[in-house]
Every structure is written in C-alpha cells, then in structure tokens.
C-alpha cells in the first residue's frame, strides 16, 4: 500500500511544479495514485481498461512512445521508504523516440541517439506495470511525462539504461536501420541501488527504420518495431560488392559516473581535478581569513619598523648633525619628508607632534 505521506508529497510537488502542461493539481493525480486492480473491476462488475499498446504513435514519422516489456526485471515501489516488490510484477520501460526540432537528430528520452552523441550518454527510463492502461498512456503523452521538462514526482521509478546501439545503412538509399538493445537497467546511486541484466531469451528490443531523403523533409521514422534478441543487422551490400559498415557501440551505465569511465586515466584526472577544486572551495573562508591576518600582521610590523627607524634616526641625528656635510643633510631631509608622507593622513600633523620627535635638523 502506498503511504498517504507519499501521496501527499507528490500532490504538493504537482501543485508546486512549473512548466507542466496544467496548473491544476487534480490533473496529475493519475501520475501518483494507485490504479484500480483487476479485482476491483471484477468486484464492481466493470470491464478492466484496455492495456496500452507496445507502440503509441504521438506524431506520425516523428514521435513514438514505446512500452518495452522488461522481462524478469525488479519492480521499484516508490513508497517512503522505497522498496523492491517481491515477487516483482510484470513491468515495462517507457521510451520516447522523437525526431528533434532540427529535423536532423533522433532523441530517446531526450538524449540524442542518431547521430549518437558522445559517451557518456546516460539515458533514463520510467518503469511502469506491464498492464499500464491505454488511458494512462494517453495522459502521459498528452501531458508530456517523457519530456525533460516534466518535474512532477510520480509513482513510476526510473532506471539508468545500459544498451547496445547499432546503426547501419540499408540497401535502400538514405535509409538506415537502428537497433536500440537495452542490456541492463540500473539504479547507481542513492539508498536503494540495484538493477538487472535483461537476459531472457524472449526479451525484445527496439528497431527503427530511419530515412532522410533530403534536408527539406528531414529525418523520419519510417518504421518502429519490437524485435527478438537475435535479429542482428545484416550488413547491406555496397554497389562495389563489399559489405556496408555496421556501427555498434556499447554503453554500460555503471562503468560511467560523473567523472568518466571507470578505470580510465581520463576519469582519474577528472576526479583529482574536481576534488582539488572542491577542497579549495571548502577552504575559501579560511583562505580569506589567512590573507586578512597576514595582511594585518604585515601592516602592523611595517608601521612598527617605520617608527623604530624614525626613533633611531632622531637619536643619532642630534649627535651626528654637527659632523654631516651640507649635501648629506639635504638628502636626509628628503628621506624624512618621504617617511612622513608614507605614515599617512591618520598621523597627527607635524605641529601637533611632541617637541622631541620634530626633526631636529630643521631647528
Ligand atoms: C495489473 O497487474 C497487476 C500485477 O500483476 C495486477 O495486480 C492488477 O490487477 C492488474 N490490473 C488490471 C487492471 O488488470
Ligand atoms: C518526447 O521527447 C520530445 C523531445 O525531447 C518531447 O518534446 C516530447 O514532449 C516527449 N514526449 C512525451 C510524451 O513526453
Ligand atoms: C542484445 O543484447 C543482448 C544482451 O546483451 C545480446 O545477448 C543480444 O545478442 C543483443 N542483440 C542484438 C541484436 O544486438
């Protein structure tokens, strides 16, 4: 049973959210309240709602939401505290395949996968019950739950995806095939880390046929389907008879963190650089204090030295005055002027100085 507290927090989150498609919190209750069970429908003599299709068309050739069954995956229950359901109910991952506004790139859950953005390409996907109803799916689409701007807390947990990404040209001009094969789902951080490998033989993945006949039309999703694990792309034949290239990249989300890929020098360097930065940042107030203290000490000592020099000079000058040559007397005079200027405005004016400290040579 989902706790009342969580519902309350999520409701408050819904009200407080900005940039969502509705200002009225009641429009979001579907995203955090429990859906009625099959037993409920039976008890009330109602037909259970239709289950959402594996592929929902949002905009033909441009945007599709895939509900991919995640066979044998653990199920996150977002109560407070969060738990893993035992045994986990059948569940699915939601993937939003959309051609970006520039009509040149394909995004999945907001991240660019064609052309593939450089790693680390952390893609996150919501997990829903496998029997998510078509009605709720339509609400997700209408209110753009799979958009990066969505910031209402929901009962649906997310996972980081590890995947195999394969893209290859086909025999048809300007048409290529893209396979997005999820290999693992993970929660890397936080209190409840965990995940699973998608290893079951019946596990499916998403295959897209993309075309880009000309710049005007832009990139199009000609076909999107769920295919079996072993439907590997066969390289097309080039006109010269050779095989066309097949580009495959593998991304393992747990091998990457904020700093880079585990076990690489680049990551070590980033960690060192960031930690040094953090250390310095944490010490900034102390640094400022040290600088202020050092500055104050220097000023005090400088002034003291200046005073001492002046006192010593005054003492010796009386004795030496008679012996000095006229030129030297003039030079001494200048030095004295400078010294007095350096001592600054806060010094009492000459006239107010006690008789003994007045330059005796001027007498
Ligand atoms: C959906 O699946 C869950 C878990 O198997 C089940 O408890 C629930 O009754 C199902 N809901 C409907 C409407 O069939
Ligand atoms: C799918 O992603 C696109 C691009 O990020 C976004 O504009 C759109 O709103 C998303 N669709 C849904 C249903 O959230
Ligand atoms: C998809 O990934 C699974 C698990 O890593 C692998 O066994 C399978 O061969 C892959 N299929 C394709 C077509 O890449």
Automatic annotation (TrEMBL):
Signal in keyword set: yes
Domain DUF7728 residues, every copy: 64-182
Name assigned to this protein: DUF7728 domain-containing protein
Any Pfam family: DUF7728
Signal peptide stretch: 1-19
Region listing for Disordered, in residue ranges: 334-363
Stretches that traverse the bilayer: 284-302
Keyword vocabulary terms for this entry: Membrane, Signal, Transmembrane, Transmembrane helix
UniProt-listed InterPro entries: DUF7728 (IPR056145)
Tagged with keyword Transmembrane: yes
Ranges of compositional bias, category Acidic residues: 343-353
């Amino acid at each position: 049973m989902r706790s009342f507290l969580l519902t309350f927090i999520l409701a408050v989150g819904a009200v407080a959210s900005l940039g969502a498609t509705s200002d009225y919190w009641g429009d979001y209750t579907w995203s955090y309240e429990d859906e009625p069970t099959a037993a409920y429908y039976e008890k009330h003599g109602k037909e259970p709602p239709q289950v959402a299709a594996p592929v929902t068309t949002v905009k033909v050739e441009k945007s599709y939401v895939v509900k991919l069954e995640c066979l044998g995956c653990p199920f996150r229950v977002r109560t407070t505290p969060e738990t893993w359901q035992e045994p986990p109910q059948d569940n699915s991952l939601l993937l939003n395949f959309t051609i970006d506004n520039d009509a040149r790139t394909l995004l999945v859950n907001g991240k660019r996968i064609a052309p593939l953005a450089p790693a680390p390409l952390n893609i996150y996907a919501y997990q829903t019950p496998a029997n998510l109803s078509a009605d709720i799916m339509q609400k997700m689409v209408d209110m753009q739950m799979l958009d990066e701007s969505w910031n209402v807390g929901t009962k649906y947990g997310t996972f980081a995806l590890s995947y195999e990404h394969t893209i290859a040209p086909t025999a048809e001009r300007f048409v290529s095939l893209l396979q997005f094969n999820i290999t693992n789902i993970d929660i890397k951080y936080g209190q409840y880390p965990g995940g699973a490998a998608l290893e079951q033989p019946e596990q499916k993945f998403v295959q897209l046929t993309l075309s880009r006949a000309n710049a005007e039309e832009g990139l199009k999703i000609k076909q999107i389907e769920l295919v079996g694990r072993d439907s590997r792309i066969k390289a097309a034949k080039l006109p010269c008879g050779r095989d066309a290239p097949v580009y495959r990249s593998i991304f393992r989300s747990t091998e990457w963190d904020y700093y880079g890929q585990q076990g690489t020098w680049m990551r070590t360097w980033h960690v060192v650089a960031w930690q040094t930065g953090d250390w310095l940042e944490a010490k900034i107030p102390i640094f400022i204090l040290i600088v202020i203290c050092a500055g104050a000490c220097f000023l005090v000592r400088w002034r003291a030295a200046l005073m001492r020099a002046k006192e010593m000079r005054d003492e010796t000058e009386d004795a030496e005055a008679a012996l000095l040559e006229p030129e030297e007397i003039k030079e001494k005079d200048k030095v004295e002027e400078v010294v007095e200027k350096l001592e600054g405005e806060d010094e009492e004016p000459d006239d107010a100085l006690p008789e003994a400290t007045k330059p005796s040579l001027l007498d």
